Structure prediction request, 372 residues.
Amino acid sequence: MTTAQSVRGHWNGSGRYVDGGDARDRELRFEARVITKLGRSFQIGAIVPYVVTDRRFGDRASRGSGPGDVSLLSRYDFVRVGGENGLPGIALTLGLTVPTGRSPDRARDALGTDVTGSGAWEARPGIAIEKIWWTGWYVFGGVGVGFFAPFKRDDGSTIALGPRMLAVVAGGKSFTNGLSFALGATHEQEAAPRTDGLRVGANRARTSALAFAGYEIDDNWQVLASLLVDVIGREQIAATTIGFGIRRAWNVY
Amino acid sequence: MRSTFFALALLCSACGGAEEAATKTGDVNVTVASPATVARGSNTFTIRIDHPHATAVEATLWMPSMGHGAPYDPRAVKLDDTTYRLEDAMFSMPGAWDLRVKVTCPHGVSTQTFRYEVP
Prediction:
C-alpha cells in the first residue's frame, strides 16, 4: 500500500482550524503488508513501512526518508467474518508497534523530515465487528486503544505518550463484478503526554471522512484505493491522504 | 498573531551568596518579541531581560501535545547586557509550541515558558 499525505493546516487547542498557508508538508509512505492464517480463526501479520517526507517552510526546504515503525498484527475471530447464526463477525485484535523508525528527538534534519516514527513501543488491543448481507452490502466497525511504553530522552527526562483510541466505522457494497466500495469515518483521541510524570499539553482528537474502493482482478489479485480527509480536530494536523495498493492472496486452505 | 509576551517573574538572585538567594531574590521581567508572523520553519525572536547580570540565556522548543521538541535548540546571541537575539527557532510542524527560555544569573537559574500557535 502506498499513501500520500498532504498537510493543509491544523486545529488548535480550542478546535479552531488554522490554515497552513503556503507551507509544503507532504509524506509518502510505502508499506509492505503481509497477513497469514494460523488455523481457522487466528491470523497474524506485519506492516513494514518506508517513509519519505518533503517539506518547505518559508525559504527552507528539505526531504528525508527512512524505515518507519514496524507494526505486528494479530486477530482472533470468535464469529467468522461476515457473521453467522444472526451474529455479525466478531474478532479481537492486538497490534504491536515496534519503534524501528527515527523519533522526533533523534531528528537530524532541521525540518524534521527524517522523522519516521514515534520513538515508543505501542500495544493496541481492539475489537472488530463486521456484517455482510447476501445482497453484497456490508458494515464494519472497529475500535482499538493504544498504550505507549515510556521512553527516555537524551536530557534524562522520561516521556510517556498518552493512550490513544482509534475507531473506524464504514459501510459499503461488494458487486458481483469484483468492484466494492465503502464510505465511513475514523476518529482518534489521544491523551496529553506526560513528562517525568507531569501531564503537559492538551488532549488531541481528529475525525476523518473515509472513502474506499477495491476491485478484484481475479481470485488472487485485487487493487485498492482510499481517500482520508481530516474534517474536525483539536491539537492535530489537518491532512488529506490518498492511498493505492495491490493485494495478492494465496488460498492456503 | 501575538507579537509580544510579557513574562511573569523569573526568580533569579541578584547578588550575594547562594544561601542568600532566598532573601535577595528579585523579580526579573523577560520580554520575548516574536516576528510579525510565527511560522513553520526558522524564526527569530528578540529577548529582553530586565536584569543586567544574567550570565547566560538559553532556549529550547517543545511541542507539549506531541511530547517532543525541535531537531535542535535555537541560538541565543547576546546583543547587549539585557538584549538577546534568538536565532533559528525551528518549528517543524504546525500546532502549539512552547519556547522555554532559561536565564542563568550569578546565583540562580530559572526558566520561563512562552506559548506560540504555529500555523
